[in-house]
Amino acid sequence: MPLDTSKNNQKIPVNPGEVLFIGGKAATSMNILHEGSVRVETTLGDTSIVLYSLEGANLTPGIFALLEGTPYPYTIRAKTSCVVSTYVMNQPNAKKTLTTKVSVGVMAVRTLLKEIGELYKRVLSIKGLASKFDQTMDNLGAVYYILNPSIFSDVTPGAKITRDENIIDPVMKLIRNNLAGFQEHGGILPEKPTVHFLEEDHGEFFEKDYSEAIEWNDTEFHFIRKILSVNPKISQALFEADPSLLQSAAESYVKTYRELFELLSKETYELSETMNSMFVGENGLLEKFNLTLDLFNTGYSTIPSTVLLPITEWALKKSKSLLDEYKQIFGTNYASTGNCLEKLESKQSELTSKFGHELNAQKNKEEAIAQGNDPIRAGIDTKALKVELLNSASQILNYSQADPESVKEFSTLMVKLKSFKNPLDPEPDNRKIRRTIAKTYWDVYKKSFTKWLQSGKQAPKAVELMLRYGYFDESLLDDGHIVELVGRLYQPGGNPSAPIHHGTDWLEKIYSREVPTSVDELGQTFFEKLKMDLKDSGIKSEKDIPPDYDTGEARLGSEITSMYEPNVRLTSGNIASHFPILTKYHITIPLEKCFVSKDDVEKALQYILGIDYTAFNREVIYRNEDIGIKNEFIQRSIIPDFILVPSIGPKIMMWQDLSIFRGAGSKESRGRICIPHFVTGDLKTFMLEAIAAFRWELCKNILGPDWNNVGIPSITADYTDYVQFYKKSKDLSPELKEKISSEFKRFRTDRDKFAYDYSLWIRYEAEGVQRVNRVVRSIFYRHIPFHKNIREKVSTQPAYAELHNRFKNIRTRQHKEFENKYKKYMDASGNLPKELYENLTFYEV
């Protein structure tokens, strides 16, 4: 029986296990715990959980419900023998007591502070488990499709997967829609699933955030906590001087506790839903793997044992591990697993025994490949290579002649980092070590590059691998990875038509002043930063810079710090786990499949330009005094510089839309796009995102203050107008507006929204598959026209017919105007200067 609180000022002894207050009952008393400990527990749906314990004297269990004026959202039970005093009270009296009896008020606020801290930990643990289950479900779902591609009868292998909300089986619908998002965001499914794929975070492709943290930034809460943490005499005196502070603190804490409690309910519900999808009934994901094993065992499946059994073994072990974590959090086993796990364990044991010889043979083969005995790489003497690269880190450090003290600290931290299970763990201490190592690494990189350049590009192989790929320590990579890097190092670079550069070639151009330096993350140029450093020297232009400051070494150092280093970090895709040194922990798909050559960039670029032929166009001024042309605006396509930086990741960075920002020729200068040398995803998709960003920023730069002026039509102005006013559009249905609103929540900026629609425009709409809404289609058809042959193909469809006719009429009129205007510039043979001819051709339809 719960405590009878109708008697006032009673001091009650309570035995262990007895209930003090029942969840759902009204809070009618102020309670003070004098000694012992109590346990706060609740039921969320069908799940019971102990939230936290309160132990010690001068605590006020149940104060939250009393101050909020609501029934207890939890049950309070004695954990040990307790002594509790109760005082009959309602909400108004309780709030008054906080200010009239400061000692009681401080007691109540301190209790709330303790409860909030404990509740936050509990929410965090549940959120963490839910994130792990989400990631496991998403990865296993993708693998299930790879193993059984016929589950979607309308999808042919290798074809685009579209979303389908009409699938009845919720797990199959989740798999289908996840895969559609995975493809849209540049994800590449492996031909054969691996345990490595299952363990990796593919959230960027699945449109998921598997973060185990929760967003909570209550500044008032943290401010009051600081007050309470000072000397009690000081805080007591402060509250006595101004009791309203206590009331404000209590109200703030009650609000915070309610928010956390609701978050707890939400996370627990979502965890329960995910676990049900995994374990419950014949539609559960594990049951689908059981069925796959049955088909395999009966000979109806052609999946090799060496592919399937490692996957199901991983699923079994991962499920057990997550269920153990569930028991630790909730204090009891998950009740709804049924017998799917037992069945999986039984089948796995039987089949592992049956196909043990095949599994062992595969294991031996993988070990042989790791040791460099792969016949594909037979031309490389692996043993000699291992000898040559022995102690690579020492070779590089000695070559660079770095500061001995820095090297000593660097070496110590590298040893510590290599002792971690995963050096890329985002845990704060690991990140701090990686940041310190990275600082020395970039100093070593700069010194090594300068020495390599000045010595005629001669250096130990370890140094060359670092400069090109970010290699540093042979023990951080498998032997097969190292053989792959060396095999690629001396391959011909190709001869692309676009300006595509290896990172080392680019830095050489900077060093020799062949190209201007890049801006830094704040948009500052080399000259602007130098001018600030020498602000008392009277420098007004770049010509005024003293020669001692404007050297090749200075420009190289600026480029590495301003552009190279940030892009190696940003292209990695995950700032929390970033590390500039290449390790086996970075490599989520086979290294040979994510390697990017100049030819790969060229192919991806030509694919996009074959659809969006105006991607790099801008209006520039053409002058030719010899034939009387003072100022003529013409269209010109200026392809940006593409730079392959020593990085691995799923991101391509549009760094600059122009390389010269002021003066003559600025608008005709190339932009800069940085690509990791190893792209862990679809290169074309990431190129699309980068080129969309380039289009957006170039338009803003060219138009200046008018970039969002709808009176001057442009892609930025029209699309920004669409984002701001789509809810008022008569061309969009209420359902479509709701869908757009939901999609936009995923993006931080209008540019990100534009990039998403641009990707759909190029990948789907160019094929006649309608994926953007009619408002966006109208904007894009006007400002991002397809190549002529694509326009003619899609113009037969009703969705494009009117847009095409309008586009054709406008371009025909523009072409006629230019044709008439340019007649006076023709020579005796009727020929135009090349620039005018190309501009006239641009407007042909």
From TrEMBL:
Listed CDD domains: CAP_ED
PROSITE patterns: CNMP_BINDING_3
Domain Cyclic nucleotide-binding: 16-82
Transmembrane spans: none
Protein name, UniProt field: Crp/Fnr family transcriptional regulator
Species this protein is from: Leptospira bouyouniensis
